[in-house]
Structure formats: C-alpha cells, structure tokens
Design a protein that fits this description.
The protein is α+β, with helices and mostly antiparallel strands and about 260 residues long. About 35% of the residues lie in helices and about 20% in strands. The chain contains eight helices and eleven strands. It has helices spanning about 5-20, 50-60, 70-80, 90-100, 130-135, 175-185, 235-240, 250-255, and strands spanning about 30-35, 120, 125, 140-145, 155-160, 170, 190-195, 200-210, 215-220, 230-235, 245-250. The strands form two sheets. Strands 1, 4, 5, 6, 7, 8, 9, 10 and 11 form a nine-stranded mixed β-sheet that branches. Strands 2-3 form a two-stranded antiparallel ribbon. Strand 2 and strand 3 (about 125) form a beta hairpin. The longest helix is centred in the N-terminal third of the chain and has 19 residues, at about 5-20. The two termini are about 35 Å apart. Residues about 15-25 have low confidence and may be disordered.
Length: about 260
Amino acid sequence: MKKEQYLLFLVLSTFLLMGCSNRPPKEYIHDVLLPMTPVKDQGKTELCWAYAMLATIETEHILRGDSVNLSAQYLGRMLKRKNQRAMGQTALNLMTRYGIVGYDVLPDDATQELSTPKWVFMLGAKYTPLEFAHSVCAPGEYLSLTCWPDSPYYKKVEVSVPDNWEHNRLLNIPLDKLKTHVDRALKHRHPVCWESRGHAMAIVGLAHDSLKQRYYVMKNSWGTDQPHGGLVYMPADKMWRDVIALYMTKEAYSSE
C-alpha cells in the first residue's frame, strides 16, 4: 500500500484505540528488540513487501555476525509490472530468478536514469546479482506461512488476495500454533516478515506498556520522519487480526 493511504489508516486506527481508553500508552518497554539496518523510505512506491522481506533478511544476517544492506528498488525493477503490489513471497521469488544488489548502488531515491547493476562487489569479491542473492538468502531458506481457516491445516494453500497474483501457496498453520512459532522466533532472536492485506513490515521485537498490553515492534519503510524513528508498535490483537502471511527462516520456525 502507498504510504499516504496506510498512514491515514493507522491514524484512524490509533484514534479509535485512544477513544476506547482515553489513556494511550506513552512509553513502551521492550521485551525483545533486534538490531536493524537503517530505516528506509519506500516513498510513493508500493514496494512495502520488498522492503519488509529484505529488512527481515538484513536483521537475520546481523544476528549471524554478518552485515548486508539490500535494495528493494532493484526488486521493483525486476518485477516488470506497472502495478507494484505483491507479496513477501514475490520478493523471495524475484531474488531466486534475478538476484539482489546492495542498497548503496540502488538506494530509495534511485532514478530510472541510474542503470541497473550487473555486478555486486563485496569484500573484494565480484558476484552476479544472482550469486550474491544465493549468498544472503539460499533458495528454500525461508518458510511462507499463513492461517487460512477454511483450508486444510499443515498443507500448502493459495492465499486468495489480489496481491497474490503469482498464485503462491503458503503453509497453512492453526492460529494458536502460528502465534507460538512467531513469539518463539523473536525470543530466540529471529526476525519475522509480517504481511496484511494492505501493508508489510519486518517484526523486530516484542514490547508492552504500563497497562501490560502487548505489542509487536515492526520496522516500517516510510523513513525516519515518523513516530518512534520509523518503528511501529502494533497491538498484538490487531497484528493477528490483520495478518495474511508471515515469513521466517526454517531455523526460526524450529526454535524451541
């Protein structure tokens, strides 16, 4: 979703939440907060799915003692569609087909006049974008998950939303089990990519407020000129009510 549209949605949602309590939380206490690369800005694009998936991969690498900063604009170019809306799975698919490049060569404000890189240079080595992608995200490394109650659980199902024009099939998990996997992943220091019908963000933490209400800390892609420096504190009930897809590594999913 475009930033302006979703920002209006969040403002209205926040207003409704404030109206219910008249005492909105002023401070969040972090239970988990994972390290991140700098917050990026998708601008007027609809590439939130690419920004969220790449932010998840970046944080995963930081926690492995590695450091990568990846270009969502490259995936936007590889999409080759006028309508830029898609899913996190699309980002993984594009990386498998076309690879990825660093943010330094195709940043948020990259213009069409700036040519698409054919090589990636990293620590003295030279890679094709496809070789580089395989080094930062191996094919099959990430699981694509959903909770689609009308379909069989523990089977792959097609998520019937307009953004899934690729007809991707995601592993269907009961909601209570999915909640357990996500919370365990975060507590074991693994990020998770979250996707709703309108937006996508990387989950990088857990928090609570003075009223003991729970929140998921999400890294957004609207720049730092936002409350909390570009982070979003999503109430847990809203996060689970809105979710249509989640993406995490197999290691994160198996966390005990």
